[in-house]
Amino acid sequence: MTAPLPPRSACRAWFACAEPGCADERYPLHEVVYRCQRCGGLLEVEHDVAVLGQGSPETWRAAFASRFRGLFPDSSGVWGKREWVNPLVADENIVSFAEGGTALQPMGRFGHDIGVPDLWLKQCGVTHTGSFKDLGLTVLISQVKQMVADGAQVRAVACASTGDTSAALAAYAAQAGLPAVVFLPRDKISMAQLIQPIANGAKVLSLDTDFDGCMKIVQEVTADGSLYLANSLNSLRIEGQKTVGIEIVQQLGWTVPDWIVIPGGNLGNVSALGRGLDLMRRLGLIERLPRLVVAQSARANPLYRAFLSGFATYEPVVAQPTAASAIRIGDPVSIRRAIRTLQACDGLVEEATEDELANASAHADRHGFFADPHTGVALAALIKLAARGTIRRGERVVVISTASGLKFPEWKVRYHESGLEDVVSRYANPPLELPAEADAVRRALDGLLSNP
Q1: Strand 13-17 and strand 43-47: pairing?
Q2: Rounded to two decimals, what is the model's pTM?
Q3: pLDDT in tens, 219-256
Q4: Domains in the chain, ordered, with CATH?
Q5: Which residues, at least 6 apart from 92, have a Cβ–Cβ distance to it below 8 Å?
Q6: Under a CB-based contact definition with an 8 Å cutoff, are residues 63 and 9 in contact?
């Protein structure tokens, strides 16, 4: 039996503390608050599940299918699910670049190569600013625009970033007419990532520190509430990012994959993924959760080290240089969220060296993809788990690609020039320089095409 959806006016959401003993600690979404004022734990956006549950699973599925890539605001994969994300923003305050709704692509020959034939790639980097961060920033900036419309005084929206968050923040803030300030670690992001916030008019502060240092400073300067913090410790970001898991299940015909593999840095992404999947289960759209794998760079692996102890201990690390610059984070703010998520879904954590992530990315590229280094970390982790038999041949696996490979052209070029430190480029394919003579070209082609 189907039941109609509840009216949007009946849907409610608020900030709540997720820590044991503080479940009754609540704050309205228009309040500038990021942590529980009682225990200091990070807040989550909670929804009135009893109201959402008035709609039957069949009605929700049908509604999401009919809205998918429709007219504004349903042109956004996030706002087409607004009752589950943020029902409190008026249409005129939604700031969107039609984010979400990204392709779920079968990986075909690459999957067969690594022993995982039922392998899919969720292309979250094929979006307005080239990364999955758009999914969270559309929600956060829309909420800030609603707050300003209601009379709130916000001088600017600010974030610390390793590149992708700053790009998304700058673009969405520019569209909303809000000032943006970004704190970047000097000389630790790609030129393509640096130019995005500059081009969109953000005030860019390049600090002589790493991401963790930037994160510390941005929390200090936003503490008085005059600057609105846009990093993922603000759970409005998580609400947009959680639609990735919902989309995956929808694109697979409302079936749940066996595994989802996602790169992890500040760890808001895996927390968001878990929240979307859990809400689907609570509302009856799915009956089970997939197992999640968080993939970390071996040079920035605090969650992996905690996993080795069964999460009995956790210690921050000093993150070392890695091609996967967006996850070069030694003290992730969402560590507790991530651990809770992994424990709820029998999840795993794996790491990848620079050699492993570079060659996994290049291997996928040979099959028509153009994987960024963070996706390379996820693919490398998958290859290791498949080789061990942890992920079995008949299981369905989805890898989440978090950014566009077009943001990392210098890294791609250096790989094919065999110029990356600590990397043996097993799939290098440098151009062949020849004189402009037909006979020389024929001879070269004979050699190249006889050894494809």
Answers
A1: antiparallel
A2: 0.94
A3: 999 999 889 999 888 999 999 999 999 999 999 999 99
A4: 104-130+238-416 (3.40.50.1100)
A5: none
A6: no
